[in-house]
Amino acid sequence: MRFQVKLVMFDLDGTLLDTAPQIAEAANRMLVALGKPMLPQAQISTYIGEGVQNLIKRCLTGNPHDEPDAELFEKAQPLYHDFYANNATDSLPFSGVISALQQLKTHGFLLACVTNKPEKFTRPLLEKAGLADFFEIVVSGDTLPKKKPDPLPLLHICQKLGVLPAEAVLVGDSETDIQAGQAAGCFVVTVPYGYNQGRPIDKATVDATVQQFTEVVDLLELPALLKRG
């Protein structure tokens, strides 16, 4: 089955870019500065995807459900932001990302990036990785009053680009993406190599899954105008 869509939206962390190594490094430098023990990168990877504040809280407590001491959290935030600002742009695209985006752009699809990462990190990351020019619009975690899993960022993109949600697909790696896409009324496609809080994606909850990023291209019908040409 191929999806007849005009717009393809992409999550960033764990979908387009492998950001876990740099996030883990910054988080561990934060923990050391606070006199706390470092955490394995694999554990920190399970904390990615629901915004930087949740990431910091989880690193401080070692538990996705606990709240850290308020004073400690206030000290931790600027430390993490400073450390991550120094290494964020070292993250690299996953295999096949650039070639797939090039194909989608050539075929006439509208492309967008929607992430829960703050804009001050998102823009430099996309530019350094050579991805920024592919996207008509980029929505970060602090662009709007709400972020994923709320559907607002996806609906905002559709409205700005004049596309119905049913004419759009979101490609992501986590339950956060799945919830946002379904709430917005978009198709949802997931990649298997992302973070998703350390859990495998339940394939029964999405419209399609791919094993390689380049397979996204094969899931989509070419835009009608292009096919007529």
TrEMBL record:
Catalyzed reaction equations: 2-phosphoglycolate + H2O = glycolate + phosphate
InterPro entries: HAD-like_hydrolase_sf, HAD-like_sf, HAD-SF_hydro_IA, HAD_2, HAD_sf, PGP-like_dom2, PGPase_prok
Binding site for Mg(2+): D11, D13, D173
Entry EC number(s): 3.1.3.18
Obligatory cofactor(s): Mg(2+)
Signal sequence segment: none
Keyword terms, alphabetized: Carbohydrate metabolism, Hydrolase, Magnesium, Metal-binding
Annotated catalytic residues: D11
Top EC category: hydrolase
Pfam families on file: HAD_2
Pathway: Organic acid metabolism; glycolate biosynthesis; glycolate from 2-phosphoglycolate: step 1/1
GO molecular function: phosphoglycolate phosphatase activity
Family per similarity comment: Belongs to the HAD-like hydrolase superfamily. CbbY/CbbZ/Gph/YieH family.
Function (record text): Specifically catalyzes the dephosphorylation of 2-phosphoglycolate. Is involved in the dissimilation of the intracellular 2-phosphoglycolate formed during the DNA repair of 3'-phosphoglycolate ends, a major class of DNA lesions induced by oxidative stress.
Listed name of the protein: Phosphoglycolate phosphatase
Taxonomic source organism: Methylophilus flavus
